[in-house]
Amino acid sequence: MFTKILIANRGEIACRVIATAKKMGIATVAVYSDADKEARHVLLADEAVRIGTAPSRDSYLLADKIIAAAKQTGAQAIHPGYGFLSENEAFAKRCEDEGIAFIGPKAHSIAAMGDKIASKKLANEAKVNTIPGYNDAISGPEQAVEIAKGIGYPVMIKASAGGGGKGLRVAFNDKEAFDGFASCQNEARNSFGDDRIFIEKFVQEPRHIEIQVLGDSHGNVIYLNERECSIQRRHQKVIEEAPSPFISEATRKAMGEQAVQLAKAVKYQSAGTVEFVVGKDQDFYFLEMNTRLQVEHPVTECITGLDLVELMIRVAAGEALPLTQADVKRDGWAIECRINAEDPFRNFLPSTGRLVRFQPPEETMFQSDTSKKLGVRVDTGVYEGGEIPMYYDSMIAKLIVHGTDRNDAIAKMRAALNGFVIRGISSNIPFQAALLAHPKFVSGDFNTGFIAENYSQGFHAADVPHEDPLFLVALAAYMNRRYRARASGISGQMAGHEVKVGEQFVVAVLGHEGQKDYHDVSVTDFEDKSRSSAVTVGASSYQISSTATLGQIRVQGQCNGMGFTAQVERGTPKNPLALRIAHNGTQIEAMVLSPLGARLHQLMPYKAPPDLSRFLLSPMPGLLVDVAVAPGQAVQAGEKLAVIEAMKMENVLFAAQDGVVSKIVAAKGESLSVDQVIIEFQ
C-alpha cells in the first residue's frame, strides 16, 4: 500500500480524497494555485506545493508541475479527482512512465472512452445498447421513410450541420418522416448551405441514468447500482439520487450488466461511470463513459456502504476487489444537492467573494466512514471566512442525505437545506428547495427537460410558494417577543420606565416598491424552559417553541408538535430594524411593531431607489474581458455591450434599451465588483 499520495485537484474533491487517505494512514500532498494558498484542502493535507498562478491553465492543468511536486515530496501515487487532468490520457500515461501510480483507470481505457465515435463502436462490439441511427447522408424522402421504419418510430431527423433548432424534426409515422425530411433539407440548405440529413432514434421523455462500475487489475468488474441524474440545468446536474425512482429491477440488472460488459471490453481498472439515456418505456442507450470519480459518488456510497475513494486507492495499489456482485447492497435512499455560488433570482449569475458566514447543517454521516447512515453529510472545500474565487467552478458544497425511503430522504434534505447558513455570497439553496417541493419531483415524474419546462422564464420568488405563509409571520412575532423579553430583563432600567413586552403586535411584511402587508398578531408569555408560546395570526394559531440561542441564524424548534428548522436574522441591508425569516426556500422581511407603531409606519412615505438606467452595472464579480462599444456609439436594445468572465464561464451583457454611449468607465482586463459601473449612457 502507498504511504504518500498527491491529490492533483482542489476544493471539495481534494478534501474528500484526503479524508479517506487519512483513514487509511496514508500521508497526503496538496497542490495549490495562488488563489488557493489558504484553501481548505491545503490546510487539511500533510504537505502542500504551489504549482502556479490562479488560472487553471497556469496551475491545475500543468502536468509537468504536478509530477514534479509528486517527485519532490516522494508521493508514490496521484489521485486526479474529477475535472482538470482526471480524464487526460497523456497525464495518466506520463504518471505510468514516471513510475507514479495513477489512482484511476489505465491510459488505454481513458483513450478508448474519450472519443465519442470510438466509444460507440466499442459499445456496439460489447453488445451494449446504442441509439439506433443512420449516420450517412440520406438521398431522399423515400429512403428516409425506409430508414425510419427500420429504426422504429419515433425518429429524429437532423441536419448534419444543424443548430439552434433549425433542420430538426421528430417523426412518429411514415408521412411525418417523408414531409420532415424535405423540411429539414430545405432549412439546412438555406441556413447552413449544407443539406445533408441523418436519422436516429428519438428517445421520448429521456432520463439521464448512470451506472457506477468498479474494476481491478485482476479482471474483476462489478456494478454498484444506478444514479438518477435527470434534474439538470443547461446540461449541468443539480440534484442526483440513488436509486432511480423510475427503472425496474429488470432494467437495473440489464443496464448494470451492459455497463460491466463495456468496462471489461476496455480492461477497466478503478471507479468509473457508464451513462445511459433512458426512454419513457425504459428503453436505454449508451451515452458515454466517464473514466473518473463522479461528483455524485456519495449517493452510491450511502446506499452501498462502500468508500469508493478507498477502493480506487486499493485497486491502484494492485489489490483485488474485496467484494463480488452478489455482495453489493442497496440500502435506503440517498439524495445529493449541489450547493453552488450563484444567484438563482438573477438568472443564476455567479457569486464570488468572502464567506462571511458558512454553517452547514450538523453532519451525522462522514466521507471516510460509510458505516454511518440515515443522516446528513456535507462534502465541502470551503470554510467560514474563506474566499470563493472567480477562477474555478461555482460549487460551494455537496449536501447529501440518506433516508429509509425516497420520501424520508426528501424530508431530510428539505430540513438540511433550511439549516444551511451561507452569507456573504448568494447560493442556489432557494432553487433547490423549490425543486424538492415540486409535486412532479416528489412523485418521480420528471426527465432531463424538467427544469427547462417548469422554469422556462427563469426562477422567481413566486416559484417557491410557502405551504403556510402565515407561519413565517408567526415565527417573526415569536422571535421578536423573545428579543424583547431578553431586553426587559436587563438590569439598571429606570423604575417606572422598564421595557414592557406586551402580547399584541402588528407584523408588517415588506414587499417590493414600498408594498407592505400588515398582520395583527398576539404572542402569549413563555410557559416553560422550552420557550413555548401561543401565537395567533388572524384565524390561525401556532404553538411555537425553540431553545435556539438569540442571535444565532439557524433556529430549530417545534410548531404545533412538528419539528422545524428556519433562519432568522435581525437587520437587513435595506432596514436594520427588520427581521429576515427564511424557511423551505421562501424568505420574507418583516417588522414587528406595536399597534401604535404600525399606525405610524403606514404613514411613512416610500423612498424609491435612485434611477440607474443610464449605467451598465456589473451583475457579478469577475474579469472584464471585452467592451464591445465605444463612446458616442448608438446602441439598440439587445446589442452586445460587454463580456465578463467568472467561474470558468463567459457572461455576455446586452443593452436593455436603445441609447448612446457617453463614457466607458471600466477598462478591459479590470477585475469588477458587483454593481461596479462599466458603461455610462447619455
TrEMBL record:
<dbReference type="Pfam" id="PF02786">
    <property type="entry name" value="CPSase_L_D2"/>
</dbReference>
<comment type="pathway">
    <text>Metabolic intermediate metabolism; propanoyl-CoA degradation; succinyl-CoA from propanoyl-CoA: step 1/3.</text>
</comment>
<dbReference type="InterPro" id="IPR011761">
    <property type="entry name" value="ATP-grasp"/>
</dbReference>
<dbReference type="InterPro" id="IPR016185">
    <property type="entry name" value="PreATP-grasp_dom_sf"/>
</dbReference>
<keyword id="KW-0479">Metal-binding</keyword>
<dbReference type="GO" id="GO:0016042">
    <property type="term" value="P:lipid catabolic process"/>
</dbReference>
<dbReference type="InterPro" id="IPR005482">
    <property type="entry name" value="Biotin_COase_C"/>
</dbReference>
<feature type="domain" description="Biotin carboxylation">
    <location>
        <begin position="1"/>
        <end position="456"/>
    </location>
</feature>
<dbReference type="Pfam" id="PF00364">
    <property type="entry name" value="Biotin_lipoyl"/>
</dbReference>
<protein>
    <recommendedName>
        <fullName>propionyl-CoA carboxylase</fullName>
        <ecNumber>6.4.1.3</ecNumber>
    </recommendedName>
</protein>
<dbReference type="Pfam" id="PF00289">
    <property type="entry name" value="Biotin_carb_N"/>
</dbReference>
<dbReference type="InterPro" id="IPR005479">
    <property type="entry name" value="CPAse_ATP-bd"/>
</dbReference>
<keyword id="KW-0067">ATP-binding</keyword>
<dbReference type="GO" id="GO:0004658">
    <property type="term" value="F:propionyl-CoA carboxylase activity"/>
</dbReference>
<dbReference type="GO" id="GO:0046872">
    <property type="term" value="F:metal ion binding"/>
</dbReference>
<dbReference type="InterPro" id="IPR000089">
    <property type="entry name" value="Biotin_lipoyl"/>
</dbReference>
<dbReference type="Pfam" id="PF02785">
    <property type="entry name" value="Biotin_carb_C"/>
</dbReference>
<dbReference type="Pfam" id="PF18140">
    <property type="entry name" value="PCC_BT"/>
</dbReference>
<keyword id="KW-0464">Manganese</keyword>
<dbReference type="InterPro" id="IPR011764">
    <property type="entry name" value="Biotin_carboxylation_dom"/>
</dbReference>
<dbReference type="InterPro" id="IPR050856">
    <property type="entry name" value="Biotin_carboxylase_complex"/>
</dbReference>
<keyword id="KW-0809">Transit peptide</keyword>
<dbReference type="InterPro" id="IPR005481">
    <property type="entry name" value="BC-like_N"/>
</dbReference>
<keyword id="KW-0460">Magnesium</keyword>
<keyword id="KW-0443">Lipid metabolism</keyword>
<dbReference type="GO" id="GO:0005524">
    <property type="term" value="F:ATP binding"/>
</dbReference>
<dbReference type="InterPro" id="IPR011053">
    <property type="entry name" value="Single_hybrid_motif"/>
</dbReference>
<keyword id="KW-0547">Nucleotide-binding</keyword>
<feature type="domain" description="ATP-grasp">
    <location>
        <begin position="120"/>
        <end position="317"/>
    </location>
</feature>
<keyword id="KW-0436">Ligase</keyword>
<dbReference type="InterPro" id="IPR011054">
    <property type="entry name" value="Rudment_hybrid_motif"/>
</dbReference>
<keyword id="KW-0092">Biotin</keyword>
<keyword id="KW-0442">Lipid degradation</keyword>
<dbReference type="InterPro" id="IPR041265">
    <property type="entry name" value="PCC_BT"/>
</dbReference>
<dbReference type="InterPro" id="IPR001882">
    <property type="entry name" value="Biotin_BS"/>
</dbReference>
<feature type="domain" description="Lipoyl-binding">
    <location>
        <begin position="607"/>
        <end position="682"/>
    </location>
</feature>
